[in-house]
Task: inverse folding
């Protein structure tokens, strides 16, 4: 008779000393793990619910300006430095980690229209309604800390003939561009523009240099058009006319030919530079004019601030927002900014406050240990896997929005459906083929050259 | 690794600086022209020149005769796979197609890795009992002979508790097989660690006890007493008296749903969520006294046997039975479902035991036994324990083929009231009229446990963490189908 009975020796299954780790034996056979699908679903449900529980995106507000903020810009090298300018001409430097003002001074006599850092972060350029462009050198202020600037003297001042409404600096190099009556290309050290671009008779209200292809310049003109310039000898190369004006523009820092414009018709358009016949993507979720847009440094997400007092975050390839931020105290937005470490969003609004938000509302900001990170990654993957399940997606999609936004969006839905219904009726009662189905994107461009 | 310089790189840069006008006005036709021109040219990567003489000393040995990884038995991989792959050809979008292909590859890799891990990582092997050349038949071997043949530690796992005064005993093991709970009909309830015989608690409920069941850990257990169901602490302190669960005969605990299910004398089936203390469903089954009940561990469905030979299956989401089938010509006296949820064994007064494929409701085998079996139980490795009167017989692999004689046999001194296999151990616990016996059944327990599911060597901290994790993963009863 041969007999063997199951016998386990405790030393194989119990740790030897309390300084060892526990012995955890695994058996991956399916009979050991019943209800795999149900448990996974339960975990996905818990993951989205916890997401909502931990979704506290507002970090703090940066107080100090005495008039509505008009523009903000980020330091090219440091993550925690930003500069902001207000409608009374004041310029402030902020330290985001301490949420304190590092320095402030009365820069201009009018509304500051544009502000940007020079590459290297050693100086700031600002342009205002008093027709001046001023260069401010930063040096000791970074170390000095809080306090007003020791001098209101700019390093250099350029007085222009006409109004200047926007300023932008090349990512690498000496050139910067301003816009106003027309787009002008300058070089640091010169007091006259090296080139003036003109296309049409309308004034230009924003300019942006492409961070990757540093010779490309994008601008928005008052005739509802977007103009692309090449600052090498060529000049203006492309123009796209749309139905409504674009308010702002941002280039994708990862893909050189992609840029996104924020338009007055409540949506944002993503364009491919090579094919400007139609936008590549339309971002529709705002209920009022979109005022500013910025790309995340990963190039995969955009943040937009709108006249309807909300900030929305969109993924570059999706048409609807993944997140909406709003506060009762935040009034009309004037500018938004995505920090260079992809974690924070800074918004400036016309009630004199800069607000700091998290880019991902339920992200933990502190140090994450390995086990915690693994668990968070598992939860992310679960949410992705079950994102189409109705119960899970319902929780994931749910956001509280201010009442005016909710009512406006309902109204817009009614408008859209009625338009679609009328178009469908027209199509039904006309000769088949005379009214082809056009994708939304193709309807947006009026003229392209 | 060195960097491979492609010759065309440098020349392309130069041309870019000159041809600024050409930057934007590139048309498709011009691209085609360029492609046609360069078709015959092949890009040659220039590698780093290294001194071959220097490296001559390191002579390579003969090539590996078995290159690549060790091949895995496809049958084992099949065991770990979770169903058929998705047909990727049906997907229309290229990006989604690639995504799906990648996912399917990952799933296949996971099944293969699990199969490989199973070969290497599982520390224990199952027990067995085989006869020698002159005595092939193992059915006559007594416990004393087996005890003599194994080491004393394992022999101690087979013991008898002579508790004559308090009536036939019901027994239950915890999920990890460490603790045992026994309840005598006349009210004696005791919970203890059965290997070390360390007593957790012992008391007399002063009422008739019909069934005992552990809840999710060894800290709580439920006792179906004369009128109501009580929940006790491991120290014997009464925690709850569930008045809604009255006249219960059988109790079953669904571990992943945290549900205590019970069948009553009045023909009611009740599901109680023990984490919230809420009765989820109270179904009146209209089938009479429900004294034959078991759960299907795979999908948490309750299977009841009735005196007209029918079997019904119940979920807390439906008022009517989810399934109803005619199993025997006479009353069904024992029902059990195996751990993987594929086989159902039923025993009846007409001295037959039938094995069914539970998902297809098809009878697979039918065996005739000497007496009508009153208790029938599948072990973790699909050994079937059958008790009739005071005889307990164990059949090996009844689901696979025709068997004509039992694998093992054991006599108790009084009539058997309940048998339970101990999880992860080669032990069968028998509650009978004279107390409790535990016998060795080599090959009945699953040799390798998964410590994250049920760990017999759990420390207190591990138990607490496991409790929290189990509660987080608690499945909603709506998902029982």
Result:
């Amino acid at each position: 008779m041969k007999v063997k009975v199951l016998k386990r020796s405790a030393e194989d299954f119990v740790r030897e000393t309390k300084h060892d780790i526990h012995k955890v034996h695994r058996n991956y056979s399916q009979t050991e793990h019943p209800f795999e699908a149900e448990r996974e679903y339960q975990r996905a449900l818990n993951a989205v619910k916890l997401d909502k529980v931990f979704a506290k995106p507002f970090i703090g507000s940066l107080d100090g300006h005495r008039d509505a903020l008009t523009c903000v810009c980020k330091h090219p090298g440091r993550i925690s430095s930003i500069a902001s300018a207000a409608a009374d001409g004041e310029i402030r430097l902020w330290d985001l980690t301490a949420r304190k003002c590092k320095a402030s001074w009365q820069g201009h006599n009018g509304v500051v229209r544009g502000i940007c850092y020079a590459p290297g972060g050693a100086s700031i350029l600002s342009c205002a309604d008093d027709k001046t462009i001023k260069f401010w050198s930063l040096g000791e202020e970074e170390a000095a800390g809080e306090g007003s600037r020791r001098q209101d003297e700019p390093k250099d001042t350029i007085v222009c003939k006409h109004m200047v409404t926007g300023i932008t600096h090349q990512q690498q190099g000496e050139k910067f561009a301003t816009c106003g009556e027309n787009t002008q290309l300058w070089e640091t050290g010169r007091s006259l523009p090296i080139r003036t671009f003109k296309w049409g008779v309308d004034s230009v209200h924003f300019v942006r240099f492409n961070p990757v292809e540093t010779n490309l310049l994008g601008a928005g003109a008052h005739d509802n058009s977007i103009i692309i310039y090449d600052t090498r000898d060529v000049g203006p190369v492309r123009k796209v006319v749309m139905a409504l004006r674009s308010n702002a523009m941002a280039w994708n820092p990862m893909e050189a030919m992609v840029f996104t414009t924020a338009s007055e018709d409540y949506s944002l358009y993503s364009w491919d530079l090579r094919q400007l016949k139609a936008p590549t993507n339309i971002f529709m979720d705002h209920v009022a004019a979109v005022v500013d847009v910025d790309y995340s440094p990963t190039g995969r997400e955009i943040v937009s601030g709108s006249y309807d007092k909300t900030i929305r975050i969109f993924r570059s390839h999706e048409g609807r927002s993944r997140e909406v931020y709003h506060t009762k105290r935040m009034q009309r937005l004037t500018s938004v900014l995505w920090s260079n470490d992809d974690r924070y969003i800074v918004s400036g609004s016309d009630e004199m406050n800069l607000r700091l938000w998290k880019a991902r509302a339920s992200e933990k900001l502190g140090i994450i240990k390995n086990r915690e990170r693994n668990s968070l990654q598992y939860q992310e993957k679960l949410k992705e896997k079950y994102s189409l399940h109705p119960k899970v997606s319902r929780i994931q999609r749910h956001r509280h929005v201010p009442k005016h936004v909710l009512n406006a969006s309902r109204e817009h839905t009614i408008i859209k459906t009625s338009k679609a219904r009328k178009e469908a009726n027209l199509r039904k009662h006309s000769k088949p083929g005379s009214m082809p189905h056009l994708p939304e994107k193709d309807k947006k461009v009026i003229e392209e050259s | 690794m060195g960097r491979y310089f492609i010759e065309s790189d440098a020349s392309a840069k130069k041309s870019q600086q000159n041809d600024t006008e050409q930057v934007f006005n590139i048309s498709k036709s011009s691209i085609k022209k360029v492609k046609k021109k360069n078709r015959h040219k092949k890009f040659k990567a220039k590698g780093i020149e290294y001194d071959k003489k220097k490296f001559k000393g390191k002579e390579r040995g003969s090539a590996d005769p078995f290159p690549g990884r060790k091949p895995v038995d496809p049958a084992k991989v099949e065991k770990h796979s979770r169903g058929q792959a998705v047909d990727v050809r049906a997907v229309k979008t290229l990006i989604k197609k690639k995504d799906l292909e990648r996912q399917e590859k990952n799933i296949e890799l996971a099944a293969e890795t699990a199969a490989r891990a199973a070969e290497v990582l599982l520390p224990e092997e199952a027990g067995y009992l085989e006869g020698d050349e002159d005595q092939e038949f193992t059915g006559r071997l007594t416990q004393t002979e087996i005890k003599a043949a194994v080491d004393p530690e394992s022999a101690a796992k087979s013991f008898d508790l002579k508790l004559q005064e308090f009536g036939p005993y019901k027994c239950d093991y915890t999920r990890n097989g460490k603790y045992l709970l026994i309840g005598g009909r006349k009210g004696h309830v005791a919970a203890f660690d059965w290997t070390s015989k360390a007593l957790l608690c012992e008391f007399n409920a002063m009422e008739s006890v019909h069934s005992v069941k552990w809840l999710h850990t060894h800290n709580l257990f439920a006792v179906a007493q004369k009128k109501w169901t009580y929940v006790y602490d491991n120290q014997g302190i009464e925690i709850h008296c569930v008045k809604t669960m009255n006249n219960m005969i059988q109790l079953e605990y669904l571990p992943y749903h945290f549900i205590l299910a019970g069948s009553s004398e009045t023909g009611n089936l009740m599901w109680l969520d023990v984490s919230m203390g809420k009765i989820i469903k109270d179904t009146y089954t209209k089938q009479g006294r429900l004294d034959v009940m078991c759960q299907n561990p795979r999908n948490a469905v309750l299977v009841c046997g009735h005196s007209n030979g029918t079997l019904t299956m119940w979920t807390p989401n439906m008022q009517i039975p989810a399934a109803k089938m005619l199993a025997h010509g006479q009353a069904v006296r024992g029902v059990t479902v195996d751990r993987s949820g594929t086989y159902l064994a039923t025993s009846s007064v007409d001295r037959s035991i039938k094995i069914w494929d539970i998902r297809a409701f098809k009878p697979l085998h039918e065996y005739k036994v000497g007496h009508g079996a009153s208790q029938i139980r599948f072990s973790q490795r699909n050994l079937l324990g059958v008790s009739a009167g005071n005889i307990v017989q164990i059949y090996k692999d009844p689901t696979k083929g025709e068997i004509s004689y039992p694998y093992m046999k054991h006599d108790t001194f009084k009539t058997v009231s309940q048998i339970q296999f101990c999880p992860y151990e080669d032990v069968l616990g028998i509650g009978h009229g004279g107390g409790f016996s535990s016998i060795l059944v080599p090959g009945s327990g699953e040799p390798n446990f998964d410590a994250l599911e049920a760990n017999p060597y759990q420390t207190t901290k591990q138990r607490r963490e496991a409790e929290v994790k189990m509660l987080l993963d608690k499945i909603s009863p709506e998902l029982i189908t």
